[in-house]
TrEMBL record:
UniProt lineage: Bacteria, Bacillati, Actinomycetota, Actinomycetes, Kitasatosporales
Keyword tRNA-binding attached: no
Alphabetic keyword roster: Protease inhibitor, Thiol protease inhibitor
UniProt-listed Pfam families: Inhibitor_I42
InterPro entries according to UniProt: Chagasin-like_sf, Prot_inh_I42_chagasin
This protein's name: Protease inhibitor I42 family protein
Entry keyword Disulfide bond: no
Domain Proteinase inhibitor I42 chagasin: 65-143
GO molecular function: peptidase inhibitor activity
Origin superkingdom: Bacteria
Amino acid sequence: MRSVPTPFRLLVCATVLLALTSCDSDGGTSVKSQLLGTVHRDRLFTNDPDHPAPQNRTEGPIVLEHGKRFSIAMLENASARLEWSASDPQPAGYLKAVGTSTEDTSGNKHAVGGGYTLYFTFQGAKPGTARIVFTNYCGTHKNTGCYSPTLQNTVTYRVTVR
């Protein structure tokens, strides 16, 4: 049996590796962009006492077509006391929650002080307007060790499906 030359093997491996690690340079058709849809990054506030983050704020509107996906990217960081959860979209029926996924943003999300991005993904179910409320666990649960009255409590996103 005849073996395949090494340079050809390297070329095939490099081509496969490039295809698997596409970073949306193809106009948004990578697997990641198909799963997440359009990504909306939440604003990050610093712990500046002269310019405190609002404890409850509203963002949007996000506008999307029926059947399309979008994600809201929230920074999670236990040492910064940012631990977000999302409510079910209200009123019901206009948006469908697809799921959550993560991406490390500072090395390793399991490292002390390491943060990461948590993606909350939704899909437009029918035309109309809904809201999604994100709650910061450390800003709202007084019986936890991470609670502080100065932390962000909620972020509400308004979403319109066409």
